């Protein structure tokens, strides 16, 4: 990077250029700015009220590792703002052989660094089958990410609920790229209901346990840079099933758009947020089988758990 440029905060030689604003930073100021941006987003949308119990969904990957580090630092830097806020970790073991067991080792190392309580839950315990088992039943990996996403969300919520924490919120490491991809996916699928709620700053289906995404306005590249310069521990191997995900189509579209518009990940979310007040009221009820809050009459997680063959599994997603 040219030394003609200077860090916008301290005038030192820069090593990082912000993905969205294109402002130059030295390594230290980049981390400070990153924390400030997340803090501002959290405060603007009241993601973490006082006396909150924040359950962080951790996988050992860079996004959740950065999320945990940022929340830990914000809570300790601004104790008068994040009053009586506590952090807790929940990890989900999907049962992906030679992958998740390795990442959970990293999760345990991270837990030791921050000295936070950790709970590990699994598909096997909740649904009597692992993701590997589902793939064998399907005899295909084409919809593996869709099934995994349903069961991961449900497992994380169940694990958080079992902690029985007051004023609980469940934080996940979804970033700006993830959210923009989700918007694109819902557009491609024609799912207007999910489209209008997929980037909600606070998604509250559960009476206690609303979901928040503090990194929603942070670029994937900046998260990688933060993890590198903060020297964070994380597991970098990609899930073996990810290569067949339909999300890859949306990812490529967003990447192509971002070449001509560096703010497209933010603007995509802001466009949905600007019309979210126009959406119909969502009816929330509890699943009769597992008790989890659901939208609609059927709990997809339980439908997957109750499926006995590939045809029944595909029927859950309405795929051929």
TrEMBL record:
Lipid biosynthesis keyword on record: no
InterPro entries for the chain: Rossmann-like_a/b/a_fold (IPR014729), TilS/TtcA_N (IPR011063), tRNA_thiolation_TtcA_Ctu1 (IPR035107)
Superkingdom, taxonomy of origin: Eukaryota
Domain tRNA(Ile)-lysidine/2-thiocytidine synthase N-terminal: start-end pairs: 54-238
Residues annotated to bind ATP: 57-59, 63, 92, 173, 178
Keyword tags: ATP-binding, Nucleotide-binding, Transferase
Keyword Transcription regulation: no
UniProt GO BP: tRNA wobble position uridine thiolation
Transmembrane segments: none
GO molecular function: ATP binding; transferase activity; tRNA binding
GO CC terms in record: cytosolic tRNA wobble base thiouridylase complex; mitochondrion
Protein name (Swiss-Prot/TrEMBL): Cytoplasmic tRNA 2-thiolation protein
Species whose genome carries this gene: Spironucleus salmonicida
